[in-house]
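batch job 7 of whatever, protein = Proline--tRNA ligase
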Amino acid sequence: MSTLFLRTLREDPADAEVPSHKLLVRAGYVRRVAPGVYSWLPLGLRVLRAVENIVREEMNAIGGQEISLPALLPRDPYEVTGRWNEYGDALFRLQDRKGNDMLLGPTHEELFALLVRGEYSSYKDLPVTLYQIQTKYRDEERPRAGILRGREFVMKDSYSFDLDQDGAAASYQAHRGAYQAIFDRLGVKYVIVKATSGAMGGSASEEFLADSEVGEDTYVRSIETGYAANVEAVITPVPDAIAIEGQPAAQVYETGSTPTIATLVDWANATLDRTVTSADTLKNILVKVRAPGKDWQIMGIGIPGDRDVDMKRLEASLEPAEVALLDDADFAKTPELVRGYIGPAGVKNAGGTYLVDPRVVSGTRWITGADEQGKHVVDLVAGRDFEPDGTIEAAEVRDGDLTPDGTGTLLSAKGIEIGHIFQLGTKYTDAFEVDVLGETGKPVRLIQGSYGVGVSRLVAVIAEQCHDDKGLRWPKSVTPYDVHLVIAGKDAAVVEGAEKLAADLDAAGLSVLIDDRKASPGVKFKDAELLGMPAVVVVGRGFAGGTVEIRDRFAGTAEEVPVAEAVAILS
Ligand code: ATP
Ligand code: MG
Ligand code: MG
Ligand code: MG
């Protein structure tokens, strides 16, 4: 420590609110460069690398192959999938000297799909899982809590490519298992919850949320049934509402065709996950329509009693045109749009609370009380079309609500998202036509999965879950050093004895941080607590009598042991 590039701080940094942030800065693990942008100092980098390695080992164990893609990317692939715009302000966009648009990658679905298309051409090549551990960039609206929500951060992102649904499901399950192994090895307490797929698109998705009161995600869980879901994704069975499998931006019409009720019904049957038999059951779907050269316009279709009017409006504005489902960007742009189901008589779960499934991009009115019939949903404006107070609020899930199947009770808690797994389906492989030659000689469109772990965020999460009021406390799996050896005495015998013990520990495969500074024992002990190695060995007063003290940072215990036994006890 006399030469280690480390300065510990006695005071909490002024901008830090959560414990992990305060401690990681005070203990000299990270240093702030700009909001959400941090440098890793020696001890911090060792923890980061340890987390990375556990992630790497478990990804390799399921057959993942590590590659590394650039973070600096051309606009074009993201333009093809619409994410250049849909990602909104969170995307770091820049131009090169020639004026070409570029971006700093927030996530790499596009690039992996393109890479596989370029390299693979036969069904014999599949399945494949590729991953990278790489720096990601997102211009977060509220960078927060140091490395917990950075604008530059390290993510492990992997992508699976399969020939069929069974294969895709197997790849998803393999990742799910790998993530459990990773978080178990890291000693993180977490839950797996149903999730929405957000900007990734696709259908099935689950999040791994670390238990933490400082978490920004709220989830509900039922002890009785084991049901657990992010509140964003609570699903309740809804009679007569039309659930759309999270497929944003499905293109419905060929340019030049004119939509009719019949084509809409066909489209709904092809796109939605329940059968639509007539326009009557097509109620309350919102779509966006675009005539050539015009902007997208949000319209409601098929509302009973109102549908002829609607269809006329639709047809009038659609010649020729595209029709697509609303996506996240539409909701982001139009705050008045409220996500939720809307049924003919309101939609309640068994507990009497209105629940929202944001995957359902169809219903946007959220109406309680007097106005339960539903009305027009075109160009919704808060205040004009509905009362903002008392209506939207009812969509929140509350403690004590029943589970969707009515057999359990929900309790809510906070968590930090540490992993997220998605079945993307063909969203990206369609966009880039990623096909291989199938066994029958026909082309097969590949099915993609996408899986992320917040590697740098995990360092903060572990610090958050493991610290005490004295400082950090690292689990053995990620600690920067196994043993923190404090030289608490000036005698040559003590110093030599400490160095010999360090060498023995090292030979036994334990990494050792030696505090050989000139500071007082009191200062050294305080720093040892702050830095958080799981074992602290004090070579000092007892050494002349042949003992050293071993302190357990987790248990808070201390015991004098014979020097000769120290290595065995610590191994
Ligand atoms: P969040 O909900 O916290 O914003 P996300 O859902 O946007 O996360 P994903 O796109 O699912 O994140 O990315 C995969 C993983 O990357 C997340 O589960 C999380 O652990 C991590 N991650 C995402 N954003 C950040 C960030 N700004 N800083 C650190 N880690 C992040
Ligand atoms: Mg995010
Ligand atoms: Mg999230
Ligand atoms: Mg996520």
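notes: The longest strand covers residues 411-425.
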